[in-house]
């Protein structure tokens, strides 16, 4: 609650909810868990850090579909009903430096259970199939959890031939044991409202501008900058959304680094004096964060050639889901191609690169062929001569 204000508070009744969300992007996962982009960027407090850590443990990719269960028990809510200044401020800058650009007007505490069923697909076709089947199985955003949940999950796997990974966590309680397996989730969620909360955490909060307090100095410029960065009334992406999406791309290309630098520079300029008008908002290209779904065809035999050989098995289906891309190719040979040496890098997940070689040990290496984002090789022709 605010440190600059003297407040009157009112306690509210608790509540119990258990809902299911079908998420096809990281943004939707954050939305389902009620986490603002700005909160993720600045680090979490209360239960927000636990939820952020859980999202990261799931490992969302551009081709994963997540069926997310969110069961929440709100044990207490405290809301400000009246406020006045402890010491009337002289300037808006004074208010900002002591209390930020807004104050917390309500806090809800309780416990939460999170379970994620992650369907990892290998291409755009299977991705869209899982999205369509899952959305039809759990129609709407935030469907009520029911006793047939486990059957519905199994039906998605059966209909799409895509298996799923299971992750879970609990917040606000430490004595109760989590389900041992996914099959026990129905009873656990159904009884979640009776679970003793030995360590209730903050799950939701609301904020108000200091301009709502009688006697506040001119806060118009500060309010405007706040709306520019994170305005909860807008449905379109905000600067905080772009910053979050860019930062969660673990191997972001230079243009995303530049985006983050521009937004960070803007935030620092505003923080230095948010009462100063005319601080230029960074220009954001809305297309730079669009990530295409990878398309892969798995060979069952060599595409060409007459000697021995077999299909290369350098990569597996899990690596495809993490956007594995070739980054460098070297051809070794002399009058014949003797070896093909390829270096791969994961674009998501662990920062991992590895090199594989197919062929013999003869000949000499050709110059390296470096591949950037979106570049690919359709064929290789080798010429030899004196």
From TrEMBL:
<dbReference type="InterPro" id="IPR036404">
    <property type="entry name" value="Jacalin-like_lectin_dom_sf"/>
</dbReference>
<dbReference type="Pfam" id="PF01419">
    <property type="entry name" value="Jacalin"/>
</dbReference>
<protein>
    <recommendedName>
        <fullName>Jacalin-type lectin domain-containing protein</fullName>
    </recommendedName>
</protein>
<feature type="domain" description="Jacalin-type lectin">
    <location>
        <begin position="305"/>
        <end position="385"/>
    </location>
</feature>
<dbReference type="InterPro" id="IPR001229">
    <property type="entry name" value="Jacalin-like_lectin_dom"/>
</dbReference>
